[in-house]
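During the no-cost extension, the postdoctoral fellow (Dr. R.K.) reprocessed legacy sequence entries with the updated structure-token encoder. One reprocessed record is reproduced below for audit purposes.
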Amino acid sequence: MSSSPIANPAPERIPALDGLRGVAILLVLLMHAGFHGIAIDRSMSAPLLHGYLWGALLGWCGVDVFFVLSGFLITGILVRAKGSPHYFRDFYARRALRIFPLYYAAWALLFVVLPRPAVAAPDEAWTSLLYLQNWLYGTRGTFSDPARTITWSLAIEEQFYLLWPALVLWTTPRWLRRLCVATIVGAIALRAGLLLGGAEHVYFLTPCRLDALAAGALLAVVPLPSLRFGQVATLVGGAGLAGVAAYAGSPLTERSPSMQGFGLVASLLLAVGLLVLARGEGPVARALRWRWLAVFGRYSYCIYLTHVLVIEVLGHWWLETAGGWAREWPLTWVLALTVVSIATSLAVGFVSWHLFEKWFLRLKRYFPGAAR
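Re-encoded structure tokens follow.
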């Protein structure tokens, strides 16, 4: 098929998207810090704590925001790179320089250096090494260490990067749009079919999560939807997410088929709406251009890889030293832990960026084609 470029692809630089990435990582941080509130009061009998945790534990939708953003940004990069002499080489080299050094440093930390919980399955280490661990978690449901389990989303993105450049290059603009729509519908249908068949952890499986990546890709190759569309999608997605959680009895995806089915669709709508609003000129876009949100977005990769360790260390230490106070004032304790964990995770991301990551990123200048 023709590899002609798509007319008017998404612009290369949209400042508000750094802030949207910051929102996504903050949502994930709120969720994982919230788990320590359940550890204090497993029945969540304290009304204020109960209400807060229901909102905080819905922070898993930040992963869908990351997926939609990745699909949008990667497709825009690939569309602009069509016709460059080293299309594949430059794309994969730049992705490797951004992702591999920190990921494999974290892999060594979690599997070799630190005394983490026992590996849940004999093949967890090598599947994580090859970005295949999401299949292990999804098909066997065997995971013992949250700090390792969170890498499932990175595995899905890597698998997406493996095939998507060829599809973008070798399809016409019209067929690329059709492919995106078919992928969105197919992923949702497959997820529903597997859940009806009794599968339990479909949210880990790559084909079941391609709807968010494809939705982001579609937004990169169609005219910018109206702000009204973005507002409606955001409101319907957010309200739908809360409604499905209330119906399911839990805000967590893994707890019920309803959350894995309808909840993920609502989360997709929310993420799509936020991306549309971020690309516009309304109040949401202006808020997402706040500098402090962009700072979180810049360091979000390291924060994502390390925040569970940070929260775990701080939470366990704080419970041991102030356990009585934590149980007497659980909401105050969880909020304090969340704020301290966010600040510490940001500090870790800052140090990682300036002492480690940026030295690899400077090598991107040798592979300019995919950045055009």
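The mean pLDDT is 91. DSSP finds 16 helices and no strands in the chain. The remaining legacy entries will be reprocessed before the final report is submitted.
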